[in-house]
Write a structure and sequence with these properties.
Helix content: 25-40%
CATH superfamily of the largest domain: Glycosidases
Number of domains: 3
Number of helices: 18
Radius of gyration: 27 Å
CATH class of the largest domain: Alpha Beta
Strand content: 15-25%
Shape: globular
Bound molecules: beta-D-galactopyranose
Distance between the termini: 53 Å
Largest sheet: 11 strands, mixed
Oligomer: single chain
Structural class: alpha/beta
């Protein structure tokens, strides 16, 4: 009896250990781990050993296989060939490289496409994609969904219990497939039925009394033609929600299929492009965590100064970190640029040091791993001219490759400082949330009122100000518990339920501080304007009425004056009429509403609500308002110039310079520099801890 209970206790203890391990995919003491994509199928097998050995020698700790390899894994229907992958995994293990496997649903083999051409995406104009590229199959095609699961199940049976495999990445950079095929049509109708239950509810939500749009049956509803002028806004909005949902459920189906066979030690993720209007990011229910991909020099972003394009835009990684971490506290970066890419408009060399800067930036946000795309530079195929960790000869490290090596060895140094260091209270006290819902961005984009409006840029004006304050930022959703944030910014949150308005009011009444910007709360959760005065349900909260809004022409920008300074604006301006007791902080100048209020500040019991009615051209107004609010609240902030980012992670202070001149970081006396110097050059990094 005694024996049995001892055994039981031991069993329970080992079960507990397993379940704890499940959440310890990336042990905290290793801080982060770095890997590289490798495509065995692209290279002669005689080179695999050499390549994987080199990868390990350079310090990489994992590799990534089989992403686009469906044709090699299942060369004929139902005939699987895992021999090559077995050998590649064995070689990775020989050099202590852990393996991430991929489900390769981004590239169906030609036999599948030819036998079932309806799996190909049908465009709005009726034309169809064809075999020869990738991401041409539709997530809304029933056969594609079902057949993909067969292949995934075979992979999972083969490698699901293999300890050399640490995890799975689903598909590749999943996005919405907008498909006009028959299955998509059927699934859209079913989705609408599920959502609205009755056709009357749909008619109400879509406002179909307008222009004789009324439906009497779900089967009358087609996929909306987005290019047809005047097409019902809500039908289009629902269609884009549906497409996003198709992506999320396809990923979930993949994860459920894998889970039938894989060990709980293996995790499941996917690699999203950070797109701030994509509702499928974080909408999955089955993934263990999510990760993102990032490319910084591709010809579009100017960065800071004449050569800034070689370093990249400083908020690109910052915002991706702050967007993904709240959605998935354990997150990683699945692809990070190693050097030049091939697909940009101008594929410049990154500035020497920039690749290492990005690696540190990803780390600073809390990421648990980084994988680079890719180890070897391809010599053929669509991505010819793309850089790698080694160049086209397959052996010589590129500049980016040596920077990865440097970062990996620097992380090795940090791993020596295992005890968690202190994070300065001043940093924590500045913690700010941005309340954000990608659905608003899509809705606004459909019906902007002025082409001068740009939602992402609007949010970035606040975000940049916060980063100059050295504030840690979390992008949060309406369902988040607001209480842990002393300050929440609510930028252009157009569709708002009464329940959310109540939640925000309660938050402020209990001592929270809101900064709400123009375009917020115009519409109810259906996207209808209120049958009331413009945005009236938020008047009490903001302590002001919105008399009207104005949208001037680009050649006639308006001006807002605050504390003796002028700020030009041209995209959106709410003309405010503060209630008694509400302070007016800024006023419009130079138009028929000169002297009227543009920014108000309203104390609500313990908390406050600041309303910023204008969207300034360069973000100066937003910065000045935020500064004034934080001063009022007695929250000390920094004043970092654009391009200087400072974060704390695991107690390490990390300062990064995306600017075009050196920056001197003032550190407290009890700090110890671990990497770099307090004078941080362009693309430089400083890491310290506080003793
Ligand atoms: C990414 C993609 C990779 C690869 C890479 C090239 O967007 O996920 O598969 O194509 O670009 O830079």
């Amino acid at each position: 009896m005694k024996h049995i209970s001892t055994l039981l206790i031991l069993l329970m203890m080992s079960l507990m250990a397993i379940s704890q391990n499940n959440h310890d995919y990336f042990p905290t003491h290793q801080l982060t781990t770095v890997g590289a994509y490798y495509y065995p199928e692209h290279w002669d097998e005689s080179q695999w050993d050499r390549d994987l050995k080199k990868m390990a020698e350079m310090g990489f700790e994992f590799t990534h296989f089989a992403e686009f390899a469906w044709a090699q894994l299942e060369p004929e229907e139902g005939v699987y060939d895992f021999g090559w992958l077995d050998r590649a995994i064995a070689l990775a293990a020989k050099y202590d490289l852990k393996v991430i496997l991929c489900t390769s649903t981004a590239t169906p083999p030609v036999w599948l496409v030819r036998k079932h051409p309806d799996i190909l995406i049908t465009n709005e104009d009726g034309t169809r994609y064809d075999h020869g590229s990738r991401q041409h199959a539709s997530f809304s095609n029933e056969y594609y969904r079902t057949y993909s699961m067969k292949m995934i199940a075979e992979l999972a049976k083969r490698y699901g219990q293999d300890d050399r495999v640490i995890g799975w990445q689903l598909d590749n950079e999943p996005h919405s497939t907008v498909d006009y095929g028959d299955d998509a049509q059927k699934r859209f109708r079913a989705w609408l039925k599920e959502k609205y239950n009755s056709i009357d509810a749909l008619n109400h939500a879509w406002g179909t009394n307008f222009w004789s749009g009324t439906y009497s049956d779900f089967n009358q509803i087609n996929l909306p033609k987005h290019r047809q002028w005047g097409m019902n806004l809500y039908q289009r909005l629902d269609h884009s929600r549906f497409c996003d949902q198709e992506t999320a459920t396809f990923l979930d189906e993949q994860a459920r299929t894998l889970r039938q066979y894989i060990s709980p030690r293996q995790w499941i993720t996917t690699n999203f492009i950070p797109m701030y209007d994509a509702r499928f990011i974080g909408a999955d229910k089955e993934l263990d965590f999510i990760s993102y991909t990032r490319y910084m020099v591709y010809g579009e972003d100017k960065g800071i100064g004449d050569k800034g394009y070689r370093v990249g835009e400083y908020t690109r990684i910052a915002m991706a970190n702050d967007y993904f971490r709240p959605l998935s506290p354990l997150y990683g970066v699945m692809e990070l640029q190693p050097g030049q890419v091939n697909w940009g408009t101008v594929n410049s060399q990154p500035l020497p040091g920039a690749v290492r800067l990005w690696l540190w930036h990803v780390f600073a946000g809390g990421s648990r791993f980084t994988c680079t795309y890719r180890f070897r530079a391809p010599i053929y195929g669509f991505e010819q001219y793309h850089s790698g960790i080694v160049g086209t000869d397959g052996v010589t490290p590129t500049v980016g490759g040596t920077e990865y090596q440097q970062f990996i060895s620097e992380i090795g140094q940090l791993r020596e400082h295992t005890a968690l260091q202190q994070v300065p209270t001043a940093y924590l006290n500045r913690k700010t949330a941005i309340l954000y819902d990608p659905d608003n961005s899509v809705a606004i984009e459909q019906n902007k009122q002025t082409i001068l409006w740009d939602t992402e840029q609007h949010v970035l004006k606040y975000y940049r100000a916060l980063k100059s304050f050295g504030a840690p930022v979390d992008f949060i959703r309406a369902t988040t518990d607001f209480a842990e944030y002393p300050v929440i910014i609510v930028p252009a949150y157009q569709q708002m339920s009464l329940a959310l308005i109540r939640k925000l009011s309660e938050y402020a009444e209990k001592g929270g501080n809101l900064i709400i910007s123009c375009r917020t709360g115009h519409q109810n959760e259906l996207g209808h304007l209120w049958e009331a005065r413009h945005a009236e349900p938020i008047y009490k909260l903001i302590g002001s009425e919105i008399a009207f809004y104005d949208l001037p022409q680009s050649f006639d920008p308006g001006t807002v004056e605050m504390d003796g300074k002028s700020y030009a604006w041209s995209s959106w301006g709410d003309i405010l009429q503060p209630f008694e007791g509400t302070e007016s902080w800024a006023s419009y100048q130079g138009d028929f509403y000169a002297g009227k209020s543009a920014v108000t500040f309203n104390r609500l019991n313990e908390g406050s609500v600041t309303y910023v009615g204008a969207d300034s051209q360069k973000g100066g107004l937003e910065l000045a308002v935020l500064k004034k609010v934080y001063d009022r609240l007695g929250i000390p902030v920094e004043n970092y110039p654009p391009g200087i980012l400072v974060e704390f992670r695991d107690g390490f202070g990390i300062a990064m310079n995306y600017g075009d001149s050196p920056y001197t970081m003032e550190l407290p006396e009890n700090s110890e520099i671990l990497i770099g110097e307090s004078l941080i050059p362009t693309a430089g990094v400083l890491v310290w801890k506080i003793n």
